[in-house]
């Protein structure tokens, strides 16, 4: 292994600046002569704006301007676009309502943007916002899937009858019906995937900075994908061509998906900056984040599994309703369809699957991708259903899973729901997890817990996910309105140090370290002589950013391809310098050597020769040493694994304590095991959060009840055990790194493992249903119902 | 936050003067409730009267049969005090269970009981230990102090100076924290005091109150078994996102049992 190369647990380069407070986040940036924007938001879930009076606000001290939706509409500002179109099973396109950055006439959820105040200070802007008088007609609202689907329910959009955005299906309904017809037994489940709020540590922020001298715009924003924001906002909302718009996403403090999307505030500050010819800064406060960041999950499903006599899965039928919120967020419609239903095969050879998904509008914050995005919803449904099948058939839950696994010699495996898995070894992950979890001795631990009056349970879940969504043409056929490749540029500087420009964006993932490891591996350049540049459309090639665990599998591979071009050119330069043939040059450990001789040249000297081409094959080779690669993957990657959770329940209070958690994951080849382990820890923590603590709650009128950290419960360190984490490796077959992606796995496999454990702990009460989050009261109530 | 005038007087007399002159003035102790409320623009005091410069409000002393804790003593100082740990370890433990480290280093005893948040911990101690609240005007017995939701016996411009906690024969506090806020969903202080057995409940009702049914049962037999048959009436208990009144009623019994069990009952 190259020192600090692939496979090395190198400490993160970026941590020094984060730990010493030197990170540069959007809110740390202040532009000369900057104004502060504060947004007036709707207090109602659904209301008609009868009048909107801004004169008092405009006259308030320090206020420079106040803008409303009417002002933006009059200026020809467009709506926020949706990046993925879904076609209903009857062939009709999804309902796609307009989404103006500031509401025009009607507000559609609590937190909807109504007006913006620009003032010399944030305090002045806040004071002035309170002077804006809005007279609303309070209209009836639907805040849940059930309410939205009820007979005669108020409509969020007149052109979406029944509040249905799309009614989509995947799989073979007839084949699935046939499978059920021959089933020995059918197991069913009604299941809710609870709505979540990402709560990245850094709230969203944006600065619009219009330069009237050059007629150019710069937007600083907390985005996971600045190029995507430039394209969406420039082309669809504000009509600014790319060469006039620079988007910068500097250090970003966590995204978890919620910072993928193009948000209204980005367009508002960019547009407003030009109106007043001054920079305009907006930073969300935490309360604002709760009602303006896209939410996650929120599915209600019914699923049925058909089994043969001996537990073979014959067919799976799923009917899901997914809450999309009031407007379509950037990738909202893709999450409960393409990213969810295609994963319903799981790790199993179920030959016939059919899923119907209805995307529904409600008067709530838009719903979009949140860590896992569709895949946690699929794994939770499937792994709860399989556990229930184990109970019904009397087959051990692990044995039932093993019987139905796709086996290593059956890859590539075409599922009945569109995906083709390239490789995996699910039994190996189960074996590793069982051993690490000391599963065989669980009965003893259960007894020990019982001796202390506690109920102990164990839960297992396997999962598969699809990362690095691709290829672009297939995604396009499925409704994607963007490409899904990634780009990387490698610039070898004259003295041999390396600057990398990547379209990926790091907001906690540690790219500055892992990508530097790739350079070290490929070129033998010292790890400290590599810098990674990301997050600035003026610097990095057009790239799609970071989400869906794609950075290593797509961005990393693009970088490797660019590095391979550097290696090829370096060999040609070395061949000239060493008077040998390029085919005879070996590039290893930072040296280029004529094979079989001791004649060699250091990579740094090759770089110098490229930039000071005095002794250089100028007739056949361009000077310089800089290469770019765009990489469009052939397929998704398919990380998979097995998670085992043990819980202890206090039957007196219903408190669930996660006492151990084991994850055995197959992420393919691993670049930095320490960073991978950190990603698993974070994902598992958010998975435990969903399973036990987190719940976004709206009341019937559409008011958000869980609108602060006092009421929305995030998991804390004292809620968690030490995690036992291991990996088994089957390298991805279709990328040069063999990597698959690790960012979301924890959040995907964990919730079903935890809930299976809770249900297992309650088995003496014959409880086989437990909604997420399994709060103390819910568990206690379940025990009460079972014993009374 | 709206604009306000800030005062940092050095005597209680000055405090009274400022309060008398400004109807919309508020007293600032640790600010753990007031400041977030102001930041959310839910409170708009004209003046803030910061008590931190007044001598004599931050002492903990042993008066023989009681300990006296100044109104401005921080939770962390109560938790770490040798005097409190020796005389009333349950009180030190209670203080150590409040909020998080930042809250414990800023929040004060006086601020907590003057605010009388239904979910705060200290009221259970004040009531359970039969404390006496000393104000700038008088002394108030704990039984007369908590009146309702955020409502106490304190009159306008009256402020807590210290709290005298008689040393109990034994006492224990058990708390079921809200998983999100870590406030008490239900907290129960069980104490054997010179004035008899006292059981005080916080978190469950509009303000801290004594659970007389439990006191009676434990008076007959100080044991967890004595609690077995008792079911608390849920009718007047709090009901919110985190716990129904029925669940709170149940938790009162469980937490009382845990406190009793800690005391060997």
Number of domains of chain B: 3
Radius of gyration of chain A: 27 Å
Main beta sheet of chain A? 7 strands, mixed
CATH-assigned fold name of the largest domain in chain A: Aldehyde Oxidoreductase, domain 4
Sheet of most strands of chain B: 5 strands, antiparallel
Gyration radius of chain B, rounded? 18 Å
Looking at the overall shape, the CATH architecture of the largest domain in chain B is 2-Layer Sandwich
Specify the overall morphology of chain A.
Answer: globular
The class by helix and strand makeup of chain B works out as alpha+beta
Name the CATH superfamily classification of the largest domain in chain A: Aldehyde oxidase/xanthine dehydrogenase, molybdopterin binding domain
Residue-averaged pLDDT of chain A: 97
Give an account of the 3D structure:
The complex is a heterodimer of chains A (788) and B (265). Chain A has 788 residues and is an alpha+beta fold. Chain A is 29% helix and 23% strand. In chain A, strands 3-5-1-13-10-11-12 form a seven-stranded mixed beta sheet, with helices on both faces. In chain A, strands 7-17-16-15-8 form a five-stranded mixed beta sheet. Chain B is α+β, with helices and mostly antiparallel strands. Chain B has three domains: 5-50, Uridine Diphospho-n-acetylenolpyruvylglucosamine Reductase, domain 2 (2-Layer Sandwich); 60-166, 2-Layer Sandwich (Uridine Diphospho-n-acetylenolpyruvylglucosamine Reductase, domain 3), CATH 3.30.465; 170-262, Enolase-like, domain 1. In chain B, strand 8 and strand 9 (151-152) form a beta hairpin. The radius of gyration of chain B is 18 Å and the shape is globular. Chain B starts with a strand and ends with a helix. At the A-B interface, helix 4 and helix 20 of A face helix 11 of B.
């Amino acid at each position: 292994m190259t020192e600090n190369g692939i496979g090395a647990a190198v400490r993160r380069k970026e941590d020094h600046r984060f730990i010493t407070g030197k990170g540069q986040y959007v809110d740390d940036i202040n532009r000369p002569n900057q104004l502060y924007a504060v947004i007036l938001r709707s207090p109602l879930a659904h209301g008609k704006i009868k009048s909107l009076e801004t004169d008092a606000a405009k006259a308030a001290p320090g206020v420079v301007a106040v803008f409303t939706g009417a002002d933006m509409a009059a200026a020809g500002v467009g709506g926020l676009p949706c990046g993925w179109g879904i076609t209903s099973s009857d062939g009709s396109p999804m309902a796609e309502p307009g989404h103006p950055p500031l509401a025009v006439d009607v507000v559609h959820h609590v937190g909807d943007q109504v007006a913006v105040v620009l003032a010399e200070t944030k305090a002045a802007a806040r004071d002035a916002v309170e002077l804006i008088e809005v007279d609303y007609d309070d209209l009836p609202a639907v805040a849940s899937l059930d309410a939205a689907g009820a007979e005669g329910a108020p409509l969020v959009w007149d052109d979406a009858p029944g509040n249905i955005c799309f009614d989509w299906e995947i799989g073979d309904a007839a084949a699935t019906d046939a499978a059920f017809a021959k089933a020995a037994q059918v197991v069913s489940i009604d299941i809710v995937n609870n709505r979540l709020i990402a709560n990245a540590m850094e709230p969203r922020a944006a600065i619009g900075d219009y330069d009237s001298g050059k007629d150019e715009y710069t937007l600083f924003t907390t985005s996971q994908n600045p190029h995507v924001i430039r394209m969406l906002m420039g082309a669809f909302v504000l009509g600014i061509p790319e060469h006039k718009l620079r988007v910068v996403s500097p250090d970003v403090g966590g995204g978890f998906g919620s910072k993928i999307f193009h948000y209204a505030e980005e367009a508002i500050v960019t547009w407003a900056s030009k109106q007043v010819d001054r920079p305009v800064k907006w930073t969300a406060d935490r309360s604002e984040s709760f009602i303006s960041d896209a939410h996650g999950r929120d599915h209600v499903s019914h699923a049925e599994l058909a089994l043969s006599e001996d537990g073979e899965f014959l067919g799976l039928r799923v009917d899901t309703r997914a809450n999309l919120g009031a407007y379509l967020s950037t990738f909202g419609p893709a999450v409960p369809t393409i990213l969810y239903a295609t994963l319903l095969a799981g790790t199993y050879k179920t030959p016939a699957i059919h899923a119907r998904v209805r995307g529904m509008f409600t008067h709530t914050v838009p719903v979009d991708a949140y860590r896992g995005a569709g895949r946690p919803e699929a794994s939770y449904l499937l792994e709860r259903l399989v556990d229930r099948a184990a109970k019904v058939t009397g087959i051990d839950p692990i044995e039932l899973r093993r019987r139905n696994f796709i086996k290593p010699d059956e890859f590539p495996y075409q599922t009945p729901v569109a995906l083709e898995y390239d490789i995996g070894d699910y039994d190996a992950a189960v074996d590793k997890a069982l051993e690490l979890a000391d599963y065989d001795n669980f009965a003893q631990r259960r007894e020990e817990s019982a001796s202390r009056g506690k109920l102990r349970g164990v839960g297992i879940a396997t999962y598969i996910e699809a990362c690095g969504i691709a290829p672009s043409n297939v995604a396009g056929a499925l409704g994607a309105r963007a490409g899904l490749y990634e780009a990387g540029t490698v610039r070898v500087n004259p003295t041999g140090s390396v600057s990398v420009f990547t379209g990926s964006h790091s907001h906690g993932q540690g790219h500055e370290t892992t990508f530097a490891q790739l350079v070290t591996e490929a070129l033998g350049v010292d790890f400290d002589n590599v810098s990674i540049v990301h997050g600035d459309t003026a610097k990095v090639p057009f790239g799609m950013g970071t989400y869906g665990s794609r950075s290593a599998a797509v961005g990393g591979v693009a970088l490797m391809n660019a590095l391979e071009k550097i290696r090829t050119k370096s060999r040609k330069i070395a061949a000239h310098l060493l008077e040998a043939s390029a085919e005879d040059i070996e590039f290893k450990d930072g040296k280029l050597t004529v094979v079989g001789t001791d004649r060699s040249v250091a990579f740094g000297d090759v770089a110098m020769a490229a930039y000071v081409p005095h002794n250089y094959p100028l007739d056949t080779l361009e000077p310089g040493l800089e290469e770019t690669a765009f990489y469009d993957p052939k397929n998704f990657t398919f990380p998979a694994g097995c998670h085992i959770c043990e819980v202890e329940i206090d039957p007196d209070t219903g408190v669930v304590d996660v006492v151990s958690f084991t994850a055995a994951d197959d992420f393919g080849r691993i670049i930095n095991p320490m960073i991978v382990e950190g990603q698993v820890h974070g994902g598992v923590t958010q998975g435990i959060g969903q399973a036990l603590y987190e719940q976004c709650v709206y009341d019937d009128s559409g008011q958000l009840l869980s609108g602060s950290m006092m009421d929305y419960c995030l998991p804390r360190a004292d809620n968690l055990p030490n995690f036992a984490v291991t990996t088994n490796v089957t390298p991805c077959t279709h990328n040069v790194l063999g990597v698959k992606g690790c960012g979301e796995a924890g959040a995907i496999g964990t919730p079903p493992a935890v809930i299976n454990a809770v249900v297992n702990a309650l088995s003496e009460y014959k409880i086989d249903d437990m909604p997420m989050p399994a709060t103390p009261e819910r568990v206690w109530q379940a025990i009460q119902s079972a014993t009374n | 936050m709206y604009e306000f005038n800030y005062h940092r007087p050095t005597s209680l007399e000055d405090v009274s003067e400022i309060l008398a002159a400004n109807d919309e003035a508020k007293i600032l102790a640790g600010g753990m409730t007031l400041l977030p409320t102001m930041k959310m623009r839910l409170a708009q005091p004209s003046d803030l009267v910061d008590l931190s410069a007044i001598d004599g409000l931050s002492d903990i002393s042993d008066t023989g049969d009681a300990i006296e804790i100044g109104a401005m003593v921080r939770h962390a100082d109560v938790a770490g005090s040798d005097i409190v740990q020796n005389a009333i370890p349950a009180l030190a433990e209670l203080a150590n269970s409040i909020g998080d480290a930042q809250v414990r280093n800023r929040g004060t005893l006086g601020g907590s009981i003057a605010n009388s948040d239904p979910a705060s911990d200290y009221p259970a101690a004040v009531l359970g230990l039969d404390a006496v609240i000393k104000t700038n005007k008088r002394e108030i017995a704990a039984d007369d102090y908590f009146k309702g939701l955020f409502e106490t016996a304190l009159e306008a411009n009256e402020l807590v100076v210290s709290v005298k906690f008689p040393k109990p024969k034994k006492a224990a506090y058990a708390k079921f924290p809200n998983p999100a806020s870590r406030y008490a969903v239900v907290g129960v202080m069980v104490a054997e005091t010179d004035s008899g057995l006292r059981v005080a409940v916080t978190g469950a009702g509009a303000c801290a109150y004594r659970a007389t049914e439990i006191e009676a049962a434990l008076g007959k037999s100080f044991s967890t078994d004595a609690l077995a048959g008792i079911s608390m009436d849920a009718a007047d208990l709090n009901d919110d996102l985190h716990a129904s009144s029925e669940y709170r009623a149940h938790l009162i019994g469980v937490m009382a049992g845990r406190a009793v069990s800690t005391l060997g009952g």
